[in-house]
Amino acid sequence: MRERLETTGNHIPPRAGTLPLFMDRFEKAYSPMHLAGHRKLIAVAASHHRLAWIHPFLDGNGRVTRLFSYALTRKIKLESMGLWTISRGHARCSDEYRQYLAAADAGRKGDFDGRGNLTVEGLTRFCMFYFEVAIDQISFMRELLELEKLRERILGYANLRSENLIPGEDPLRHEARYVLAEIMMRGEIARGEVMRISGLAERTARDLTRQLEKEELVKSGSHRSPLRFNIPAKVLGYYFPSLYPEGSV
Asked: Domain spanning 147-239: which CATH class is it, in words?
């Protein structure tokens, strides 16, 4: 952490000697372990500003704050699957983003503006802006990727594989279509569910799981971890033909 005072524009962050106290308070206030329900989501937006305000490093605070927000989003299981990112949204409206950050830096404006030194009204407005940008990015990518038709396209790809109609690829069992579609809809499934979803015998289901993992059509952290949806480069043209015409990747 920084060892001297570093100002950024009109913002004067806490003195270097107080940083351990501020970071300890930051951890206690925004750790998902101390929050429940929608408060975890609010913490993602609020902590983005508060970490930027603390300004713990001499350089790179913006990058650290963006990385922290991404990590916290994943920690609370709000997974983007790599399809959207809040940082992209902030970059597209960077002037407005900086204005809301600066407004949340202001001091408390009266007895009805929170109990701390900083304005709660400004922080609330920043959080609303944060969520509006996130919703805009999700809507943009949903429209661009036509996600409502993704399940149909995954089934179509699996059918082509099961009929051995894709050159250079080994055939997939017909039952793989159900497994891939289920994982896409739910994000992840327990390994033991492959047998139930596919209707295959236990050994055959394990063989199918190994093939899906080997081809990176699904991924997992270990041989016991849940199976998660994955999109390797070779299927982009089949899953998202409007973005990646077949053969272009």
From this structure: mainly alpha
